[in-house]
Structures are given as structure tokens and as C-alpha cells.
Amino acid sequence: MPTLTIDGKTVTVPEGATVLQACEQAGSPVPFYCYHPGLSIAGNCRICLVEVEQSPKLPIACYTPAAEGMVVHTTSDKVLKARQDVLEFLLINHPLDCPVCDQAGECWLQDYYMNYGLYNPKFDEEKVKKPKAVPIGPTVMLDAERCILCSRCVRFCDEITKTGELGIFNRGDHSEIGVAPGKELTNDYSGCTVDICPVGALTDRDFRFKCRVWYLGSTKSVCPGCSMGCNIEIHDNRERKERPHVAQGARVMRLKPRYNADVNQWWMCDAGRYGYKAIDEQRLTTVQHRNGHGHQTSTWSDALDLLASTLRRLQEARQMDRAGVILSTQLTNEDLYVAKRVAQALGIRNVAVQGPARPGRQDDFLMKADTSPNTRGAQALGLSLDAAGLFARAARGELTTLYVCGPDVIEAYGQAAADQVKNCVELFVYQGSNAGGSVQAAHLVLPAAVYAEKDGTFTNDQGRVQRIRPAFAPLGEAKPDWQIWTELAARLEVPVSFTDAAAVFADLAAREPAFKGLTYEIIGDAGALLKA
Amino acid sequence: MSSTATLPSASTLEPLRPEAEQIVARYERRPAAILSVLHLVQQRLGFVSMDAEAWVADLLGISVAHVHEVVTFYTLYHRQPVGTYHLQVCANVSCMLRGGEHSLAALSKKLGIAPGQTTPDGRFTLSTVECLCACEHAPMMQVNDTYVGPLTPEIVEQAVAHPDQLSPAPLAFRGAPGLNEPVLSARFTTPGSEQIATYVRDDGYQMARKAVTELTPDQVIAEVTKANLRGLGGAGFPTGKKWAFIPKDTTQPKFLVVNADEGEPGTFKDRYLVERDPHRLLEGMIIAGYATGCRKAYIYLRGEYVRSAQILQQAIREAAEYGFLGKKIFNSAFDFEIVVHRGAGAYICGEETALLESLEGKKGFPRLKPPFPAIKGLFGCPTVINNVETLACVPALLRKGGEWFAKLGFGRTGGTRLFSLSGHVNRPGLYEASHGVTLRQLIFDHAGGIPGGRALKAVVPGGISAKILRADEIDVPMDFDSLLEAGTMAGSAGVIVMDDATCMVKALWYASKFFAHESCGQCSPCREGTGWLHKVVSRIADGHGRQEDLDYLLTVAGNMEGKTICVFADAAAWPIQSYITKFRPEFEYHVRHGRCEIET
Q1: Residue B336 and residue B215 share a domain
Q2: Cα→Cα distances B147→B86, B131, B160, B310, B519, Å
Q3: Structural domain that includes position B513
Q4: pLDDT of res. B8
Q5: Which of A220, A229, A447, B406 reaches 20 to 30 Å from A98, CA-CA?
């Protein structure tokens, strides 16, 4: 545990720490481009030069081990001058096309120039011309002129995905990154190269030119794409009301991975990253009731009254075994818990949770075959995962009321089974966020909120309970599932009532042994493990 | 991408697989074979096609992008077919000084093509290249694998009319003036000196035998340390100390790597050692390998030195037949194997860690240090890296003793040195002399002074990276320490002489062009700075200089210094700083009048 002095402050750092890490710890952060904590050290950008007493040259902080007694200066005239010099070298051949660059606003060249640059530029020669706006794969656009050749993206493809699609070709000031001729950047994590590109060289083909980054809102959440539970930020079109022209008013602009040491570190897969598009696709925004030939708009009040009265009739006839509830592993712990409690209170024993209809692709990194975020949560709540069995019973005519929250029954059980159920149950309620097979089969359609619209938690396959938060309000009349269940409970005099998801979770943690002791505070931004 | 680049398909290459696998087998790891395999492919196809890149990637188990990195980094690989005769005209300082521009213009005119083009009949491709390290033949060119020069109007004529009849440039070894007994060049003029029979006749391999069978490694290192032998590649680091750094108690294999990637413009000594006395080098390597516990050695040879490679290969075969290389050499328990590895055109690979990267099959990007190669070098193992000339000193040093060798030297440097003299001297060529010889003695006493009755203007004493000296600064001994004191460096002992008709702006233009061309591109100050400097110098040379340019050049050069992984950026800065500082009035004239005062 070496102790160093950095800008006059004494700091003790772990064995093996670098000067750069020590500087961060001491509150004297140094700028860097090529350094990335998840990648090997390249030491090529040279912007992290610091002054170390007794050292003749200015060493780079990212590669210099922190040593006992070291005296480091990060703001001496020598360092400030060197930083300025390096920045000037980085910028001489840069096109300075910020007004038309999608990176503007989150560009480290801009940021460092404002913080450490502000020099009087000397360069007055012709710049080196390189390829611009080159699609190097389905997700990434390359502008080689903006590239500072930090090699982060190359190292990512070599060290993280081990696919090696990218290289730095030629040499000297004609060096440029790219894919080999005729090849593409197609690995499952290609979008991460855009995340780690500190400048506008690699931009996201999906996101570019949709929205200036200073109009983005940011919400901490968890990717619902699989049971890995990668931590993400939802970047939404925050000013869509004031600027309706931006991305035609679309709500989600992009997803970005959020660092979690124990889950995804800095990364996320492309399937998850671009999975946001499903959020607002064919959204169910109104309550609908089928009478006669098609669905007609109804109201929450009428619909829940209908569902409540149906259930009450079964209750009075002591036929609760003819009611069934199918939930989904897409729902939050809070949704599942409230549904479970209300069903229990009503005496509905036929409750099961449906997982994803088909397994997804799995790899040895972040992608899991279970393409839903909360299978482990459903298990921890003691819910049955045999929804197929329950649906089969419905298809055999054993149920008269089926309340499906989430799953697409046609996708999960097939058209024939769905038709059969539709014909033999008296009331088929579908509560969900997006149109799909279940809507066709349902008598009553209740619009539910998507994960990006609600507060709650998912439990990933490690048993880590992680928070999601609403990036925006539910679309149209949609409501979070747990809230719909409480409104149903109120109509049936079931005393299950909560003001918000936090209250649900507090109750859940008190009653469910696996969640004992957990609170939203403890879960925080990094999540917390279930009790074994 | 032109369609011709994709013509030969991978199936054309499939017959090469057995030979390629033989190459791969020489290396510890498959990717390390890439340069050699690409040479093989190019030999077959005439260039490296996209399909060939994919084939090589598959063969070596690496990604196509990384093969493409290598193909585009090294200049010897062609990505388009070239003519039957590839005329590669040197466009660096020494050749310029002796009229290289005129030879190029004459070739261009006769062939009717500009540099970079191929004649419509596909017979000739004309290129300009950076220094081929044959400055004794200046102005010169390489025609396919053969060095041709000095280029006279007759040779230019012949190159176009009968390129198949061109003769290789003759040797230009000029002796060992002032030495009673030359150490390094003793056998340069011996007929058949490259053959093992003559070397053994001249008592060769006795010292290797003695070391391996009679001495301990420590005894060898002690002798080398006593000898004050210093690294003659240019850094002057004490060789005994370097050998002693190699860990003894390691289970890892250890490697000896010979830096024969001669590339410093103005230098051509290693080629003579390799071609005229290869067994001296091999013997030095055996002794070095024994002293440091290396059982395998690589000779990293400049890619253009094709003839040198053939001579070395033959020498290695002979030595193996004699039982001097291979298993249990000299009937001892010591095994020693040598692999010749050809580079592919990249000056930076002379930097020892770039050389190791290159030898591992990557671009020549210098490594972050520490760890130093002695601890973590080739394939992550302890590695000794010595220059050819350094190792060639070792047999004589051991024969006559470290004390003798030290006494033969000058100041803190033992032994003697090979000096490459080029530019404006009457007898350009290679000289062996004492480290204490002065620059004046070399130029005027040994190389015959300045031709055409002109006066001396400037000298670069140690290869193009060394700071330039004015005519009044040449009474300096040529050893490492004296030249350092004189504000420059001994470097590779490549002495480039400029007479008073030389335009210093033009000379600097050639130097800055070289550094812009050879920067590996890894560190931002060097990658961007070398190009920037060259653009400004070009503008001044073209008559568009501005008042502030000279100070800007000095500022930019200063800003590059000391900020990069290796010293290339510093080396690129030194010519700028020294030429402008020492010849400022001439540069100012250029800026003011838009032309050279020399030409008026």
C-alpha cells in the first residue's frame, strides 16, 4: 500500500495501482484518451503526462506504478504546458467539424480543449485527408479524420470480444483505424466501440443525427433483454415537447451500458442496446373491450369492474379453481409480488409465470439464453414457472377466467391452443404493453407500462436484485402492473394497497425470505444479492 | 480497391502451405512467422492480394485485420502488382548529395512514367524509397533484390535497356587507416571470406569452442565487461552490463536477438559484416548465447538485404554441418540454434522493442518500458539484443583478452569501430578506425576530402538522427562520450558530409521527409509532429516560407521531445533544431526570398 503525495495531498493506494488511479483517488484527476480501465494499457495518447519529482521526463500516469514516497504534480506549469502541446498535436489534423459531428457535447477533444487547451493554434498547413462516414458494420460509422488513434476500439475487439475485426493501418500521420478490406465489424458487442471512442470517430449508426446529446435525459436502469441484467442508462428525448421535430418525437434515443463491476463492467451486447426499439412499437395505450366483432375502447373503471365482478362471482360460487393467472418473467419483482399477494388473498391458486417463448443466443460473456430479466426473481418469490401447464388446462376447458399479464400466448403456446382457450374461457384478460398474439385472443385488453416507464427491481441470474427507474411516464393510459393489481384488489376488498414501488418492495422484503433485509437504499445503483 | 488486386485467389496459394508450415515451425508462435510468410506469398504472386491476406490470417490463426495492419505498415509488401523490374531509387540525404534527384529524373524521363507508376507494358515500376543503407554507392537504387550504384548516365541507360544485365554495386571497403591490426574488417578483402573453410583456416570458431567448453558464462561476461565493449548499434550501452542483466535462475527460455535491421540513413556497416564475414558474427553469437544462457537466436535482418540473408543462411548451414550450431555444439552440453528473420521495410524496427514486436509478427510499435527486454523481451521471455557489429567484436576480444580490447579503444569505449562515410567525400565507403579518430581525420585524411575543390560546410556524424556539426566543429573524436559533449551523438557512426554548395533547407527537407515517412504512428506527438514539421519545411523549401516558420519549427520540435514511448520523436526533432540553429541565416534567406542563396 504505497503512500504518495499528489499536488500536496497525501494518499495511500492499493498495491499495483497506477499514478493515474492514485491521482483520481487524491481528487486530482488527470485527462486521458487511450487509457480505459477495462483494457490493456497502450500509453499512446500521451495526454496523461504528469510531473514526478526525481524523474527527468514527464511520465505517463496511466502506465507509471504508484510507488512509496512518490511526489506527483498534476497542475505544474510543466504539466499544463505538456498537456496543451499534446492536445495541439492531436488536433492539428482533426477536421474541427464539431457543428456537424454527432459526438459534439460528449467529445473528449472538446472537453479537454476547454479544460486544458485554449492555446493559440500554430498549425496552418493542409490537413491529412482520410475516409469519412464509412459504415464499417451494421452498427458503427467511422470517420477516420476525427480519430485520434487511441486504439481503444482495436483493443476492445482484441481483448474483450476476441474477434479482432479492427486494426490501425498504414503508419505515421496516415495511420487510420478500420476493418480489413471486405470485412465488417459484426461482433455481438460492436456498439461498445462507440461507447469507448472518446471522440467522433466511431458513431452509432442508429443514434447519429437523431438528437443532440445535450437534449438527452438519462435514467439509470437495467437491460431487460436477458437474465444477465446489464446495468444501463436510458437516454431519452427529454425535450420532445419543446422540440417535437427531434427524432419525430420518439422517446427513447439510445441505451448506454452503465458500469457495474459485478455484472457487465463497462459493456453491453448489441441485442440489448438496440432492443429499446421494441419499447414503443405497437404500444397498447388504451383499455379495450371486445363486444361482438372487435375491440372497442373502454375505460379502466369499466374494465376493472368487469374483471372484479367476474372474479367475485367465482369467489361466491367457490369456483376460484376455475380462474387462472399467467404472469411473466418480464415483470418486476414488485409486479409479481403484488399479483401474487392479491391472487393469494382472493384464493386463486392457479398462478404461474411464463418465461421467454424461445431461448436466445448464449455466449460466455454477457448474453444469456434466458431472454427475460426476472426469472430468478419469480423463482425467489416462490412462483410456479409451469405456465404452459396452466394454459393447457385452460385449453382443456378447466378454466373460465384467464388473466394473462405479459406473455404472448400465441407465441408461447401456438395459435391452436390460443384459439381453443379463447373459445372455452368466459373471460380472457390480457394485460400487456405491446400488441401481440395475446391481444387477438383477449376479451379485455389492459395497457401496462414497460420497464422504461416504471420503478422497481429485477433479479438477475446471479441473484442480484437491481433497480430500474422510470425514464418517462407510461404512454397513454398504461399503468404499472403492480398498480393495476392494487386497483383490482381495491374493488374486491382485498387489503393490498401501495403508494409506490418502494412501498411494494418494503412489504416484499418483509414477507419474502429470499429478499429479507433488502431495501432500495441497500440495492442502490449496483444492486444487492438475494439471501442464499 | 482495384479489381486486379483480387485476381489471384487463395487456391493459388494452397501449394505454398507446406513451405509456409516449414517457416512457421522456425518460430515459437505461429503469428511470428507473418513477415516471412508474406515474403513467400509476395514471391509467388508478385504482391499481397486481399485473398492472400485472408489466407495468411487463416494459416497463422490471426484476424485478417491484423494481417492487413502488417501489410500496410511495412513498405516492402506491395498491394498492387509491380513491374517485372522494380526500380527503387533512394531518395534520402546521401543519395541526394550525390545527384540522386538527377538519376531519378533521368529514369523517369526514359521510362515515361512518374515515381509510383508502372510502364504500360508492365515491365518497369519506378519508386522512390527511403535510405537503403548503401550510401557508399550513392546515388543508388535497388532493382528487384539487387543494389545498383553509383548511378551514372550509363547505368541509368542500361537499367532501361538491359535491366537483366545490371551488376550489383561493388564493395566499397576502404581499409583500416591508423590501425595496426583491424578487429572487424580483417577478413573483408579475403577471397571467400564468407565461407566457413576460410574462417576456420583463419582460426575461426576457436573462441566459441573455448567459451563453450572451457569457460563459465560468468567468465565470458567478466571478459566482455573488462573490454569496455559498448553497443555499436548506436546507443553505446555497455555490453557486459547488458548480458549481466539476463536472469540466471529462470525456467523460461531466453533469446538472443541480433539487431541487423540496419536503417539509420548514412550507415552501411552491418551489411559488410554480414556479407564479408558472416562467421565472425555467428561465432560472436554463440559466445553471447553461451554467456547469457540463450539457446535460440534470431537475426533480425533488414528486409532489403536479400543477398545478406542468402549469405547468412549459407553460413548457418555450414556452421551446423561443422557441429558449431545445433545440438550439443563442440561436443558440449550446449545447444544453440540460429534463425534468420527478414524485416519488411520499417526504420522503427531498429528500435529494440519495436524489433521484438515485429519479430513476434506485429507492427513495429515500440513497447512501453519497463519491463526491459532483459526481463521480458521476445515472447515475454528474457532477451539479449545486440547489434551485429557489437557481436562481431566478441571473438577477437576473447582471443586477445578484455584488457587488450579496452586498451585498443578510446576513453571509456573499447575496441574499434566501422565508420560509414558518404556524401561529399572523395572516397565514400566503409572505414575501420579507432573510436578516437576525429571527424576531420575521417573526412580529410581517410576519405580524401571534399570533391571538386569545394569547402566543407556541415557534417552529420552519427546517422541522420544526430545533430549536425558545422565545418568548424569537426576536431572532435568520434567516440560516444566526446560527441555527446560536442552536443551531438556517435549514433551508428554514419558520417554524412556536405560541401559548401549544399542547401541546408533541402538537406533538412530530406531529413524531415524521412522521419515523417518512418514514424510508426503510435504516440500522438510523433505521429502528428513529424508530418507537421515536414509540411512546414516543405513550404519553406518551395519558397512559401513565412517569417514565423523558423520559430514555429523550433517550438514544435521542442514540444515533441521527451513525450513519447521511444526516442524517435527526439531524433526527428534534433535535425530540425540543429540545422535551423546552426544555419539560421540561410534559412532566413530562404524564407525572405523564397529561394536558396546558394543557387544565386
Answers
A1: yes
A2: 12, 12, 15, 14, 25
A3: 504-593
A4: 53
A5: A220
